[in-house]
Amino acid sequence: MTTRELTTKTTLLTGSALLVLWAVSFGLSYVQLGLAALPVALGIAATKAALVVLFFMELATARPTIRFAFAAAVALVVVLVGLTVADVATR
Fold it and tell me: pTM to 2 decimals?
C-alpha cells in the first residue's frame, strides 16, 4: 500500500464526518433559521464537498500540477457564475 492510498482509518473518519454533516443538515431542515438558512446550508454543503475532494478524490496527496488544475477549474466556475449573476442583476 502506498502513501497515496486511503487508509481504512481515514476512510472511516471521513465517512463518519460526512454522515454527521448529513444529520446536521437534515436536523436543521426542521429549524426555522430565517435568512441564515441559505448560508448555513451552503456552508455545510461546501464542507462536505471539501471532504470528498480532499480525501476520496485524493486531492490532499495529489501532485501540485493537479491541485493547480483543480484550482483553475474552481476559479473558472466562480467567474462564470459571477458573470451569470451580474447579467441577471443588470436586466
Answer: 0.75
